[in-house]
Amino acid sequence: MTDLEKTIRKMIREVTNEAEKNSFLLAKPAAEYAMARTLFEQELQSSGEFTEVAFNTMLAMNVFMDGSLDENERASTSYELEFSLPKRINEQVVNRFFESLYGGSRSGFLTYYTKEELAKMHLYLIKGHNAGFALKGGNDIVSVHNNSELRGLGKFFLNAAKEKGGTMLDHFDGFLSGLYRKNGFSDVYEVYQWDEQYKPAMWSYDTVNILNPKTSIYAEALSQVRQGEAPEQLSLPNENMPIQAESGYSITINPNVKYNQYLYGRPDVILRRV
User: Fold this and answer.
1) What is the pTM of this model?
2) CA-based nearest residue to 122, from 150, 93, 153
3) Is 47 helix (H, G, I), strand (E, B) or coil?
4) What are the distances in angstroms from CA 234 to CA 224, 230, 240, 247?
5) 107 and 233 belong to one structural domain
6) I need a surface site. Which of 99, 126, 159, 198 has the fewest CB within 10 A?
7) 225-261 pLDDT, tens per residue?
8) Residue 74 sits in which domain range?
């Protein structure tokens, strides 16, 4: 285990332990804003980059759970965006983005950027509505949110983010995998495998079909290693082996264990880019 992995696991254990003490619902929209913000501001200050990546992964899952990235949806509506850029800071937009970002029931999931941190990003808001996204470092899509009455913004947000220079995002493996792939984020460049030590508090443990290419990066690889006509679980090898996951990403897994992991709602974290 690398020093980074040790740091990640230690940090997430601390977050989870604190969350359990305070009954903080990390994976539920009912999480209270003040409690979430206090906890994760502390963690961001002390633990650095991985908390931010993990947080934006859960944010993506929750923002798009309403089906706004449905494959059959056509993004026929266009919206005017107001913006603030690092070299052309618009203080009014920074303030409105901050208020928009933390003004909804889902604010408990967000990476808690300060106004000063937001001012260093490319910020985009739909004019007149509490809905938008940010690009950190010019290309990392973060803080996608919709706290407005508008619906079906998924494709618009992703298309707009790509037009503005966004090339990277992250998520839990599941229904977003096929949708993100279809929307151009087809290069899997990193995977964080599930570990019980850093599971989100109050996680829902919904089953993920690991053999369906629309819901898992492992589907094609596992179909190739299945043995015989036995039921799915019994036909998968129960030993560690290297495989080529989606987009040729090389990873070593135990297919049988990974199948059960997903069956019981423990998907891996996937980092993608166009």
Assistant:
1) 0.74
2) 93
3) helix
4) 14, 6, 15, 26
5) no
6) 99
7) 998 877 877 899 999 999 999 999 999 999 999 999 9
8) 3-166
